[in-house]
Amino acid sequence: MSTTKNRILNKALELFNEKGISSISSKAIAEALGISYGNLCYHFPRKDDIVLELYLNMQEEVDGEFKLMHEEVMNFDFVLDRLKVLFSVMYKYKFIYLGITKVIRHFDHIKQHAIEQDREHKRILSDLSDFLINNGYMNPFQSEKQKDMLIRSLLLVSHSWISDAEVFYDGDENDKIEYYMRLFFNLIRPSLTDKGKMGFKKVYV
């Protein structure tokens, strides 16, 4: 990818995160970069092309973190550490999560991709929960439905925490991701064994 194209994407990400998709035009991005509108359009003819490219970059990074958790999982500490990185990646692209409904409605193929990604993340979380149970970190589920409900709750928080933070979080900005990580893990806490709770305390006292 060319240097100019990367600069456009980085500046667009910064501006979209700061002011939202609808408030920023391609011309505004070009002006902020100090390049001509024609130069920007050479790389991205429409603003939609920039949004789509950033969305695909985000999905690639998020998918990478989920797959790393799945393929390299060694212990509970590893799962906790990778989830912290995952939340940081999500926040890097916060404009997408703040406007996810609009983005998905605007791009039909993104909607299908998002649905497929959600299914894959559900499968990975299911495998991770099996790992935690088999290694004594979590108590077994009483039913498959209970397992499905917990996984859906975890995905719901991961999809929506940025919107909640944008409106309701009133703490230190530097603690924002940490706060929502704790909220995420509090969904898991009741299912942990004593071994799991000890692992939990290594990250959250």
Question: Based on DSSP secondary structure assignment, what is the total number of beta strands?
Answer: 0
Helical fraction? over 70%
Main pleated sheet? none
Global structural class: mainly alpha
Which radius of gyration do the C-alpha atoms yield?
Answer: 19 Å
CATH topology of the largest domain: Tetracycline Repressor, domain 2
SSE ordering: HHHHHHHHHHH
Number of domains: 2
- Mean pLDDT score, rounded? 90
At CATH level 2, the architecture of the largest domain is: Orthogonal Bundle
Strand content: under 5%
CATH C-level class of the largest domain is Mainly Alpha
Quick one: CATH superfamily of the largest domain? Answer: Tetracycline Repressor, domain 2
Total of DSSP H or I helical runs spanning 4+ residues: 11
| First-residue to last-residue Cα separation | 44 Å
What characteristic shape results from the CA principal axes? elongated
Point out poorly predicted stretches: none
